[in-house]
Model the fold of this input.
Amino acid sequence: MHPITIRLADPADAEFLVRGNASMALETEHLSLDLDRLRDGVHALFDDTSRGLYYIAEVNGRRAGQMMITYEWSDWRNGVFWWIQSVWVEPELRGRGIFKALYAHVEALARANQGVCGLRLYVEQDNERAQATYERCGMKRTAYQMFEADFVLNRGE
Done:
């Protein structure tokens, strides 16, 4: 396989990101997302980078995967956690190190930034393949469970 390169996403990647996010939601949570709302959400990130940013993995010039980073302030650690979200790897390229390359890139950036205190992500509880991948990258399970009050998807807007 050709080398995997990681780069910061730009607005020209928006449709790839929309497709990846929609596919990920359907595959992992059985949710069909509103594509117009999703597209607006992807563009909102490009319009305001304080919300986060996307990275793109490429193989031989072809987009192969994506990862979004958002930010959470931790008063306990006096630093920022980078949250890994919206992870997608093209199905035919899975098992070839795409996520590992994205993760390694982001981890190196985070470790080099003194204001970042760690990386976090959440994962569907039944997605054992993804959980094993995260553990192989050195991430540890926490004692926390996630709760939410979803004001958009639960309204069916």
